TrEMBL record:
This protein's UniProt keywords: DNA-binding
Annotated protein name in UniProt: TetR/AcrR family transcriptional regulator
Domain of life, source organism: Bacteria
Organism per entry: Lentzea rhizosphaerae
SUPFAM superfamilies on file: Homeodomain-like
Start and end residues of each HTH tetR-type domain: 1-54
Amino acid sequence: MLDAATHVLRAEPATATMQSIAREAALSQATAYRHFPSVEALVAAYHEDVIASLAEHGERSRKTGKELFEHQVTRWVKMQNVHGPVIVRFWSQRGYLERLHAADVLTTLSCTAWDRALRGVLIDLSLPDALLPVARFLHNALFDPRAIIDLTKSAGLRDEQVVRRLSDAFYGALTGWASH
């Protein structure tokens, strides 16, 4: 069912319904609802798959520091070409820190996907590990899928340009925050 949802959500992220997903999966709508109580629950599972894939990508890498961070950013930017519209449609209305303190599943999974790379950046910038929560917050703000889609689609930047500019902005913001 998740495969069918992926197909439908990518094709029509703004209008996907449980009925269209069930039809794609060749299931009755009642059966679909037995698996997932709502489209939102299905999308949460989809989003979890996306973040888990990113986490696995980072875990497989032997890179460290900024090199690992930019490796993860490159993957994240590329993922937005496929998954961004779905993620954006169901992006949480709650703030990042609120979700982090509430141990929100997706936010916790996101930390798993990014923390090794963020810690490497802190080391490369000679900043204390105590700034990890700040690094998480700034990362979340700068690497929002909506911003990435805007930069690639509306501003016409190539993926490599988005990676470079957002990474440099992140390093500057983190360094600036640490100096205050």
